[in-house]
Amino acid sequence: MDWAAVAKKDYAVPEDVNPLDTLDELLGMLGDPDPAVRDEQAYGTLASWIRAGHFDAGLQEIGDQCAANLQHPNILLRSFSVLILAEVVRWNRKQSLLPRHAVQPWLERWQRWYPDEPDVRSYEDGTGWIHAVAHGADFAFEWALAEDERGPLRHLMAGFTERLKTLPLYLSQAENDRIALAMLAVLSRPAFEPQDIQDWLFGYQTLWTVLEPGKIPPGAVLAVQTLQSLYVLLKLGATDDGEALEPAYPQETLAAVEAALKTVYPFYGTPDARP
Question: What is the pLDDT of residue 271?
């Protein structure tokens, strides 16, 4: 199949091609070292055809394979598989094609993979985007919007904290914004109650409050940047597919985030009003 030609034609399905027959090839291409093959052709085609419903009959297969790929030795395959897994979760949220018990293992795979992914590089010349931290956050974003139970939402937030706790590199390619958006998705769910917000932030802020004097480690830097990005989203607002994405408990959420931010620098916040 000439996948470059498919991409150039806005991912229209070629005549006499059954999309389901191309799954093995496309999923394997997600680990290709050529960024044009991996990103533009494989990811672009899979994402477009998922959103068009062309893979509805194979949605479970795609999700299961992408979740299994999170244990693959190829970082490119791991990172781009979780990005496609996010697309599958998004489409299933909108179409309700698969039952809860069929997709639950995908979250469990993410929980085992995301905090401990060893290769967190964002971008490399010649290789292109790798971006596992951002792609993993994209999956969490989509999962959160489909989640109505408290436990999995708490697991998502804990996953962010654990990921940042062991982050081996300083990152600067908008990972903070992607994680913050995923956090907002969790905060938009009524099942994640004000006490859950307090519990999450109590642990999250230890990423910087318990540090010894010296150079600030990568995880602490990204944790603060992420909380700052979350604050911007809370103040400016956010949208998803044209609809407002707002916290379920806006006053409690904003107050808790502001309190956590004030532990970063002593100059954050104005003095209390005096009578």
Answer: 79
